[in-house]
Amino acid sequence: MNVAARAGMGHRGRAGLEVAGEPAVCDHSGALYFPGLGLLVASDLHLEKGSSLARRGVLLPPYDTAATIARLGAAIARHAPRVVVSLGDSFHDGGAADRMPSMFREALASMMSGRDWFWVCGNHDPDAPRGLGGESVREIAVSSLVLRHEPSAAPVLGEIAGHLHPGARIVQRGRSLRRRCFATDGLRLVMPAFGAFTGSLNVLDAAFSGLFRRDSLTAHMLGEARTYAVPGSQLKPG
Q1: Which of 16, 108, 135, 230 sits 20 to 30 Å CA-CA off 114?
Q2: 166-192: per-residue pLDDT in tens?
Q3: Which CATH number fits domain 11-234: 3.60.21, 3.40.50, 3.30.110, 3.30.1490?
């Protein structure tokens, strides 16, 4: 990807931005880090989606939870946050935490050790996960930020939300490129889905209508080792 970044590139190629004046770093994993707050946010992990689909006869390689937890652990190791917020739909269904193998439960417990951890309730996981640490909340306010699973229909300054799984598409030299993305206009931000088996919805889709100021929309597209900030004017539908 060779696009002009409208936002500055942070340490090791991670794009920096501000949400309601709070500096943040877009990690290429799909996590968002606020260095001034020691806060790491990830959304829509959908842990145990593979086992949930298998129960309905849809057979996929059962490695999604392993891949998702490994990527989350790597992001935590890079940033060493004091607080982690999993922004809803952390588990694909109400029984996913119970189905999760002990090795992954232990990996999560290790990540939680020594830091505050919050599970925000989502539409897939409205109840607290059983047998895991952390605190289950409907939403959480941190400094000037409000973190919740579903974005509000009306503009909310400082809102960080998930649920919509934003993605972005650009065309360069006749080649179409589509990636998950952080979507923001500087006032609020919608997180990409973090889970290994999660898809994405184009940020120009009607589902995002009214969430952002179109003249300020930027999609921070996820690459293999860095993120790329693309102005909304360069984005394509589809």
Answers
A1: 16
A2: 999 999 888 999 999 999 999 999 999
A3: 3.60.21
